[in-house]
Design a protein that fits this description.
The complex is a heterodimer of chains A (about 375) and B (about 325). Helix content of chain A is about 40%, strand content about 10%. Chain A is α/β, with parallel strands linked by helices and about 375 residues long. Chain A has 2 domains: about 15-20 and about 35-205 and about 210-335, 3-Layer(aba) Sandwich (Rossmann fold), CATH 3.40.50.970; about 335-365, no CATH class. In chain A, helix 2 crosses helix 3 (about 80-90) and helix 2 (about 40-65) packs antiparallel against helix 12 (about 290-300). Chain B is α/β, with parallel strands linked by helices and about 325 residues long. Classes of the chains: A alpha/beta (about 375), B alpha/beta (about 325).
């Protein structure tokens, strides 16, 4: 007891706090006054349409995988608001460094549906995409794009370009040194870099409580010397607002920010996973009450910004767009085998020329 | 021409590359004010400022990952890892990202980066400071692995590595940093990558090596000459991709080959060269290919490191054996 009292007499040298942001409640009602952009019905409807397209596209992709026409695929079911909300706040010149569950961001930034299918269908040309030419492809090894994001942001700052890097990863990635090393460096140099951790509660079968002893993921930013916040990741208005503020501040030279988007992965980790092995159907069912699409729809319908006819028309448009993309994907012939050498180096070294010729069916004398 | 040490040649090349191209950035631990633990970057921060000569936090993975991000943005980062024993956290970045960025984006993004690190033993350094694991790196498609063996080649090859549009791991022979001296004109002229250098011509036996071991290999060639054996000495210089035709051409001429490297025997890069000769040069062989290498054990600390590394005597014995084989 004596030592406890003595400790209480020691001065507090630092205090930290983490705030949580949300606007739309799960039933679509308003928890607090909406940010300025949300007065624009066109933008809200655009966010809604993008999330619906992503969900329907995911459904089609899984069907393709189940029928042997696509490789392993990762759906965004339940967390569509994160990638769509973040990307909607970015400018084209900003640089996206996505993980493999951020298709919503890629689509918003101009990547074509068939390009995403090409990638997951096992064709590198899917990464030679129609999105901004400087955007990174999906990072498959978890979290290892975070140091790239720091390098990108450093380059932007060095050249005094008014652009921002946005690095997206999941809760599992926050356990990796890669992410912490990048955050630490971003803090040192006050880089124009926004980290977005999609906390969907599960890293394949490992729940968040086994991932970290931290109360929030957002507080990890504090150790790196910048701010972090928790955001309702199933509220696209909150995601967009958090991203808008963070990106504007970073562009303004105020340094990095960390957004923890708290959401839930309603689907399996990928088409190769069966989530019922490690979590109950009841748990998943409960989270369906929070999902982002129904939430925004309730709000839009309540505000008379969206009707049943709009919904039907959107479904038909999405269907048409997706089917056309699937057709283009399925009719894209594979690359010629020897092209596996064509982007290995800028110029293929002489040492590998014979191997390329062998693949091309040309035989050396 | 001024005579400089190998580490001074590295410094000259870095300074020249930075002066020529504002996109060149140097980063690593202690590379700024301190000028690097071996002084390879000395004076650069004063000349080019702390934004382009950047002291990073103590995190090797970060250094390599920063290089990937900077390179994708069009910078030409030159990262320094203080010793090869500390390069392993970078392997994920080298294998999964640097070497395949061009391929996985089909040329949309590229990775013109250089990762420099001292290579090899022989300076009585602490544990983990004497590694030579170049074969591990030379196995990675999409990467270049380059190792100079003289100040002249350090200067010219480093300039080439920095200008190269693809990722290069540049391994610098620690033992020669100050021991090797030579004339280097700071004229900005690069030497070609992917090309082996014939350091000495001879008709009786081909000696192939790279990096610091060329010192012993050249000394062995002198001794062999005293015995009337004319050794041809090849500095491989670029291990990935390597100059197969110079190797095969030399073996076609001599019919006998000894490969010398400091790294452990099994799975070392010598095995690759021996396999190349077996596949494509068998008919010209007059004797089995012999490897003179480090042993298949952990590189010992200072007291025994000299016993681990190939000696002039071991190389001479092997070459003699190759020449006596009938």
């Amino acid at each position: 007891m004596a030592s406890k009292r003595a400790n209480e007499e020691l001065p507090v040298i630092a205090r930290f706090e983490v705030r949580r942001r949300n606007y739309l409640a799960p039933d679509g009602s308003i928890d607090r006054p909406l940010p300025a952009f949300a007065t624009d019905p066109k933008l809200l409807v655009e966010l809604y349409r993008s999330m619906v397209l992503l969900r329907l596209f995911d459904r089609k992709a899984v069907a393709l995988q189940r029928t042997g026409r696509l490789g392993t695929y990762a759906v965004s079911l339940g967390q569509e608001a994160v990638s769509v909300g973040i990307a909607s706040a970015m400018r084209e010149d900003d640089v996206l460094l996505p993980s493999y569950r951020d298709n919503g961001a890629l689509l918003w930034r101009g990547v074509k549906l068939e390009e995403i299918l090409l990638f997951w269908g096992g064709d590198e040309r899917g990464n030679q995409f129609s999105g901004p030419v400087h955007d990174f492809p999906f990072c498959v090894p978890v979290g290892s794009q975070a140091p790239h994001a720091a390098g990108v942001a450093y380059a932007l700052k060095l050249r005094k370009e008014p652009h921002v890097a946005v690095c997206m990863f999941g809760d599992g990635a926050t356990s990796k040194g890669d992410v912490y090393e990048a955050m630490n460096f971003a803090g040192v140099h006050k880089l124009p870099l926004v980290f977005v951790a999609t906390n969907n509660q599960w890293a394949i079968s490992v729940p968040l409580r086994l991932q970290t002893g931290s109360e929030t993921l957002a507080q990890k930013a504090i150790a790196a010397g910048f701010s972090g916040e928790q955001v309702d990741g199933s509220d696209v208005v909150a995601m967009r607002a958090a991203a808008e503020e963070a990106i504007a501040a970073a562009r303004d030279g105020k340094g990095p920010h960390f957004i923890e988007a708290v959401t839930y992965r309603l689907g399996d980790h990928t088409t190769s996973d069966d989530a019922l092995r490690y979590r109950s159907a009841e748990e998943v069912q409960a989270h369906w009450k929070e999902e982002p699409i129904a939430r925004l729809r309730s709000y839009l319908v309540g505000q008379k910004m969206w009707t049943k006819a709009d919904e039907e028309q959107l479904a038909a448009e999405c269907h048409e767009r997706i089917e056309a993309a699937v057709e283009r994907y399925l009719t894209t012939p594979p690359r010629r085998a020897e092209t596996m050498f064509d982007n290995l180096y800028a110029d293929l070294p002489e040492a590998y020329a014979a191997q390329r010729r062998e693949l091309a069916g040309e035989h050396d004398a | 021409m001024p005579e400089v040490t190998l580490v001074e040649a590295i410094n000259l090349a870095l300074g020249r590359a930075m002066a020529d191209d504002p996109d060149v950035v140097v980063l690593g631990q202690d590379v700024g004010v301190n000028g690097g633990v071996f002084r390879a970057t000395v004076g650069l921060q004063e000349r080019f400022g702390p934004e382009r000569v950047l002291d990073t936090p103590l995190a090797e993975l970060l250094i390599s990952g920063l290089c990937v991000g900077m390179a994708a943005q069009g910078l030409k980062p030159v990262g320094e890892i203080q010793f090869m024993g500390f390069i392993y956290p970078c392997l994920d970045q080298l294998v999964n990202h640097a070497s395949r960025m061009r391929n996985r984006t089909q040329g949309r993004l590229t990775c013109p980066m250089v990762l420099r690190t001292p290579h090899g033993a022989g300076i009585r350094a602490p544990e983990h400071h004497s590694e030579s694991t170049e074969a591990m790196l030379a196995h990675i498609p999409g990467l270049r692995v380059v190792m100079p063996s003289s100040p002249e080649r350090a200067y010219g090859l480093l300039l080439a590595a920095i200008r190269d549009p693809d990722p290069v791991v540049f391994l610098e022979p620690t033992r020669l940093y100050r021991a090797a001296k030579g004339e280097v004109e700071d004229n900005g002229e690069a030497l070609p990558l992917d090309i082996a250098f014939v350091l000495r011509e001879g008709r009786d036996v081909t000696l192939i090596s790279w990096g610091a071991m060329l010192k012993e290999t050249m000394a062995a060639a002198d001794k062999l000459a005293d015995e009337g054996i004319a050794a041809e000495v090849i500095d491989l210089a670029t291990l990935k991709p390597y100059d197969e035709s110079t190797v095969l051409g030399s073996v076609a001429k001599t019919g006998r080959c000894v490969i010398v490297h400091e790294a452990a025997h099994t799975g070392g890069f010598g095995a690759e060269i021996a396999a190349l000769i077996a596949e494509h040069g068998l008919s010209s062989l007059l004797a089995p290919v012999i490897r003179v290498t480090g042993y298949d054990t952990i590189i010992p600390m200072a007291r025994l490191e000299q016993r681990y590394m190939p000696s002039v005597g071991r190389i001479v014995t092997a070459a003699r054996k190759a020449c006596q084989y009938n």
